[in-house]
From TrEMBL, chain A:
InterPro entries tied to this protein: ABC_transporter_permease (IPR051393), MetI-like (IPR000515), MetI-like_sf (IPR035906)
Membrane-spanning segments: 33-58, 91-114, 126-149, 230-250, 284-305
Membrane topology: Multi-pass membrane protein
Protein name per Swiss-Prot or TrEMBL: ABC transporter permease
Principal location: membrane
One GO location term (cellular component): plasma membrane
Region (Disordered), start-end ranges: 1-23
From TrEMBL, chain B:
Top-level division of the source organism's lineage: Bacteria
Keyword terms, alphabetized: Signal
SUPFAM superfamilies linked: Periplasmic binding protein-like II
A Pfam family: SBP_bac_1
PROSITE patterns: PROKAR_LIPOPROTEIN, TAT
Protein name: Sugar ABC transporter substrate-binding protein
N-terminal signal peptide: 1-32
Amino acid sequence: MSTTHPPAQSTPARPTSRSRPVPRSGRIGHGSFGYVFFAPFLVVFVIGIAAPLGYAAYLSFFQDRLVGGNVFVGFDNYTRALGDELFRAGLWRVTLFLLVQVPVMLALALLAALAIDSGRLRWPALFRIGIFVPYAVPAVVASLMWGYLYGDRFGLIRQIGDALHVDVPRLLSESWMLASIGNVVTWEFVGYNMLILYAALRTVPQELYEAAEVDGAGELRKAWSIKLPALRPALALATVFSIIGTFQLFNEPNVMQSLAPDVISTSYTPNMYAFNLAFNGQQFNYSAAVAVVLGGVTAVVAYAVQARSMRKEQSL
Amino acid sequence: MTRASIPSRRRLLALVPAAALALTLTACGSDAAPVVSADPSAALDTETTLTFWTWAPNIEKTVALFEKKYPKVKVNVVNAGQSAAEYTKLQTAVKAGSGGPDVAQVEYFALPELALSKRLVNLKEYGAAALEPKFTASAWSQVAVADGVYAVPQDTGPMAMFYNKKILDELKIEPPKTWAEFETAAVKIKESDPKRFITSIDPGDAGGVDSLIWQAGGRPFQQKDASSVSVNLQDPGAKKAADMWTSLINRKLVDTAPGWTNEWWQSMGSGQYAMWIIGAWAPGNIGSTIPETAKDWRAAPIPQWNAGDTVSSENGGSAVAVPTSSKNKAAAAAFAIWLNSDPEAVRSLSANGLFPATTELLKDPAFLDQPVAGLGGQKANQVFADSSAGVGKGWQYLPYQLYANSVFKDTVGPNISTDINTGLTAWQKRITDYGNQQGFKVTAP
């Protein structure tokens, strides 16, 4: 820190070295230098993402049987996956979850973000952190905790219901399970989505609000005409994240399975199905095919939503 | 027993010290050891570190005895998860060729699958065949898979009926000796308090239902040869058991709450369940999970289908195996053999809560007369030993029982409170489909 002596080696050679005629292999050198910066990412990307994906795709064209060994089967695993009722049921289940839970969660996140941004709350920082804290709770812990609350005999919700003489439905039964899981996921991710939206709101220039106020706009009007349009890209982003997350639903149902094994089957969600195929059934190849199909479906849906929202963006 | 798997003199020589180790059981046997590659006792004289995956309670104490005796071998005890969780890791590690243990605890139901898929070493190569006379017939028959010996039995779970003495005394019910009496008792218990059940059936536990079918005489899974199996979950035994439990469940005399959850243990502890029909390993769990009421629990023989019989079955129980990915197979095999057949080790295992698989200990008066702490000091080992002697013969597991058990909750689970037979039929279909996909010839006799 405290360098008292003058910089001794402020080399006078520097200017000359800079003015040294650079061999003009020019643009190529320039371009390839970029790859050096790019390389660390590329290495990690190839090792961590591209290679495993490629390997999974490769695996999906074989069948390793307990009797008969490993054989190349072409697209057999894929035709089986497309006709697999268990896989389809799981896919339908997460689609239903997507259609109900994601809008509810995003609406709540939006409401929270707008409320905090409105400046009308007493302790906005407290609300912000309070809503965000569940995101810091690991999904496994959250699912266990909610699982205990849902418990049919000694769960808190049931006990409160009993005390108030209200008939609480069996939250871990077949008809309620998806909603119960939806509640856990909402609880976990409202804060996260709120932060995305809130950050987007902070980028709205103050002058816009001032101008609106001059025009006589109240808080609601400002929210409707300034904030919501400004939030559109952030909302699209949050939606895409949520779609991907929903199709990959795994932790919550997997943990709750021990509380309701008769409701949550091994194929309850597509990801659980792929996991159980691979690790309980030793069907690594078929599991890889299921995972590839699931990845494809997710990509298509996420892309469709994004493309749609971008088109809207441009039409504005 | 010693069949074609000993091709050479070299192999035969390798057996000598191993047999010596197994039979004399005290000396380390290295003095007589010729230098052969698969010589387990010589391996114990070399600096080695073994990794041992197990979830057996207090196993470290027995391992410490081993390390004291063979100071050159260090054993790292790792809890890599219980049951299916461990097998998942084990299969993945062996498939990957690294990261797996040298020695692993494996339940009997999972052994055929792991052996058939070449995940486990045939311990015959290390002299394990000589151990047969030391173990109960049912334990041995479960490690002897397809002409090999793929593990050393560690503990067994002969079925027993555990009951809450306080409740039965209060209602003046004698512990039922037959299933008919059990049903009568169930009605009485329900009448005393509508929230009470005589017991519960776990909709997620294939093993529990298997044991009940086994005791009723069912033998649903049979392996005929390396590539053909038969599955019949509607054989007379299976049907008999399923009919009775379906009837009890439909009349709300038996609960269907998932086992081992917080809620389930609360029901056990608070007297909502009067009984638990399960393997002899239960007292340890009762003692540690519901210590306040553990003193109220007692063991009795499992109810019989025909009065006067003594037919039993097994639930759970584990063996110790050596995965093929181990780099120290000889030492690992020697450790597995010592751990489960040396009298000192076996007594230590038993003292730490495992029910023995060796005939010697099962006849030992000191063992039989020992009060069991978890059961209010009852000399329950006598009950368990009788049950062990009465285990029905001929039970087999499928060479893909891990998968089969994992889809029990998908098939029987949702049908548990309507008709178990429907569930068993659905289970059979899933098992059959999977077997066919895996290249087996699956028949339903």
